[in-house]
Fold this protein.
Amino acid sequence: MGITTGSGFDFDPAVIKKDFPILARQVRNGRDLVYLDSAATSQKPVTVLDAERSFYENTNAAVHRGVHQLAEEATDAYESARAKIAHLVGAKPQDLVFTKNATEAINLVAYAFTNATLLASQGQTLAPETRRFVLRPGDEILVTEMEHHANLVPWQQVCAKTGAKLRWLPVTDEGLLDLSQLNELVNPRTRVVALVHASNVLGTINPVRQIAERAHQVDAMVFVDACQSVPHIPVDVEDLGADFVTWSAHKMLGPTGLGFLWAKGELLAGMPPFISGGSMIEKVTMRESTFAAPPKRFEAGTPMAAQAVGTAAAVDYLSALGLSDVAAHDETLTAYALDKLRSVPGLDIVGPKSPSGRIGAISFVIEGIHPHDVGQVLDDEGIAVRTGHHCAWPLMQRFGVPATTRASFYVYNQLSDVDALVDGLQRVKKIFD
Amino acid sequence: MQLEQMYQEVILDHYRQKHGSGLRDPFDAQVEHVNPTCGDEIMLRMQLSPNRREISDVSYDAIGCSISQASASVLHDLVVGRSVGDFKSAHAAFVNLMHGEAIPEDQMALMGDAEVFAGVSKYPARVKCALLPWMAAQDALNRSIGQAS
């Protein structure tokens, strides 16, 4: 069992599924679990669970503290994990910050702007690399209408505290970003463009590079929420053209409790600290402190070492599969699902209806039946989907729906899971029509 | 069978044909309650009788799942024309029902169609759907009474 054998592996989700103990369980009185909620969180292969357990059994110590052997080994495991995770996205390890989750990573950057602006308003002399983060009334922050609350609310907060103005790229009826006004919406007043790489609701993969090129013409910084893309498609932070990229471990087969912020080194160097305390300092006196260089400046407190080690095992697992093959498998499932779902009367896809240019997160509504009721009946069949606004309430408003049902796929899903979903939807129709 | 116990025909009938839906004038208090985890919303108005002892109307505009919609419809049937005291008893009984507790016979008599919601208590994630209109009505009643004093 296990797919960590490297080359020559035949991508077979039925084999892969055996590596995920939870997928063997039954739910709701003996129904086989059909897990279609990986966009919320993925399940974890046994190699990830073993890696965490092995860390606690053999290596556990607080990292970056102490001189004893365990501390040395734990620190090495933690930093090796950083290097491996950075390598996955073509980043340098020193440019990768570990956070609690992606939401914290977004706040880390948002607070760099708020804090730099606050320090400047108090007359402090700031280094040139920090002055880049000072906002003034009239400055603009551009987001999109398809952002997760995590990449919207922090920027609303930045605007409320600094006087900057929030603007957004609209979404078309097809679920794509409307770029017709891009050159007006990204203008010399724009300081930040924050956007999602792949929408957690629509599945749409956005043309980040094109938008980043325009943003850089006017010296705006580009922040990319890659939570749904890094686990599912090959992502290289340099190719993306972004200045900041965030994602999280738990959606890519890793544990909860670990998120990532990648940023260009010169930008990290200019960012004031967000969460302060132990580990992030250079020198402390009773009067004041100076701060460590990134990434440690942004990693106050005892860090999540076991989770980092678990995530390194998740990266090994994904690398053995190959992200291109993961993406191709997603697309196969998505194409099959989009086709099959068409057979359900009254069902409407919210998002692109073609399987290319999107990830395997498919949102839909069924006329006259609320998504919670859809999800409840599917649950009775053992099928786990997400229902609700998916932390993207403005996008629900854009499409005039209170909520959607979302099925999302990953490496362990099979075409038969899609069949189960469609059969489940027939039962939904039977109960509510 | 558990699912069928939640989605009883009475609930589905109320969902398909909601009683008392739509906002009406006059009203003593209007409240808006949302369920931030799922996005269900209800705008609810309450009008008390001139002597403030009776609920003369409950009107509402709600979006949400079958459980929250049917709950609002049943609430309307149950409390309009009843005394404030009856509402409070029915409210307490409904909350207990949602927590899976046994309801004494005398309280059950006040519940009418609301007793079919017993099956919802088996699904913790849906309890808040059933409670949404009742919490809004409680809030509206408090405001209506507060306004009078």
The interface with chain A takes residues 2-3, 6-7, 12, 37-41, 63-67, 69, 123, 126, 129 of chain B (CB under 8 Å). Residues 2-148 of chain B form a domain with the Sufe protein. Chain: A fold (CATH 3.90.1010.10). The mean pLDDT of chain B is 92. Chain B has six helices and three strands.
